[in-house]
């Protein structure tokens, strides 16, 4: 029994210097990858190591109670704002790194996962809405976040009409519509008790349409409607009056509307 202290001393002296040091000093923790001072749009993942073998790790986010973790570690979902991740190694002797490795990052919320955070996205709950997205005209939705609701495009057409007017009638001897929007329908309408017809669809060929000679009496209203799907139609109105060839007025008609109205300034 008297030899026991000597044996213990010999065993202790036989231990490697690093093993003796590991019993006395806590491990040092280092974060090897993960955001630090940068912004992220998804819960970040961190990798970390210690300068001693056979250690465990404790992770904490924003000062919360540390939980046992392993490298790599992904944080739970976080709200937008500044956050801090900390990790400390714990060795087999119960020594905990007194100076945990830390990383600070800014979390930008991207609820719809369109790569644009809430601070930049004008609607973070619709993935098709983000800065630079394709704008759908006329749907009253600002897809590209420029603050402008793109209207439907306007139908194009040019009316050239000629003839003569008397006290009893106006005769259109030439009536030609050119520059017609591709795919548009051209309709000649007349309203009033003295109209020779109600509606006529003009055939469009190579963006051009024409009507045969016709006459209308004072009080009638001749109109050319140029319409196309998802397009603001163009209405060219010619009110028939006595002794004067009509002066044309241009109106607009929204898709599906029954009556034309004054065109909005473009």
UniProtKB/TrEMBL annotation:
<keyword id="KW-0732">Signal</keyword>
<dbReference type="InterPro" id="IPR021655">
    <property type="entry name" value="Put_metal-bd"/>
</dbReference>
<dbReference type="Pfam" id="PF11617">
    <property type="entry name" value="Cu-binding_MopE"/>
</dbReference>
<feature type="signal peptide">
    <location>
        <begin position="1"/>
        <end position="21"/>
    </location>
</feature>
<protein>
    <submittedName>
        <fullName>Metal-binding motif-containing protein</fullName>
    </submittedName>
</protein>
């Amino acid at each position: 029994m008297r030899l026991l202290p000597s044996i213990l001393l010999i065993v202790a002296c036989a231990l490697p210097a690093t093993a003796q040091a590991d019993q006395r000093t806590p491990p040092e923790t280092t974060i090897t990858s993960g955001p630090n001072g940068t912004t992220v749009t998804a819960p970040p993942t961190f990798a970390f190591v210690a300068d001693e073998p056979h250690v465990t790790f404790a992770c904490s986010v924003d000062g919360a109670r540390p939980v046992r973790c392993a490298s790599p570690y992904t944080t739970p979902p976080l709200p937008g704002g500044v956050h801090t991740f900390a990790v400390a190694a714990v060795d087999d002797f119960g020594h905990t790194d007194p100076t945990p490795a830390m990383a600070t990052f800014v979390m930008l919320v991207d609820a719809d996962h369109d790569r644009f955070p809430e601070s930049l996205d004008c609607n973070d709950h619709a993935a098709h809405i983000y800065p630079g997205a394709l704008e759908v005209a006329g749907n009253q939705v600002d897809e590209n976040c420029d603050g402008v609701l793109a209207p439907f495009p306007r139908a194009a057409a040019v009316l050239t009409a000629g003839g003569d007017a008397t006290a009893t009638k106006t005769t259109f001897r030439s009536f030609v519509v050119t520059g017609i929007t591709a795919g548009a329908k051209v309709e000649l309408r007349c309203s009033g008790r003295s109209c020779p017809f109600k509606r006529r669809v003009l055939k469009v060929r190579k963006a051009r349409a024409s009507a045969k000679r016709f006459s209308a009496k004072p009080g009638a209203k001749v109109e050319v409607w140029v319409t196309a799907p998802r397009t603001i139609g163009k209405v060219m109105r010619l009110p028939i009056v006595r002794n004067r060839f009509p002066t044309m007025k241009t109106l607009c008609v929204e898709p599906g509307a029954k009556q034309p109205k004054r065109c909005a300034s473009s």
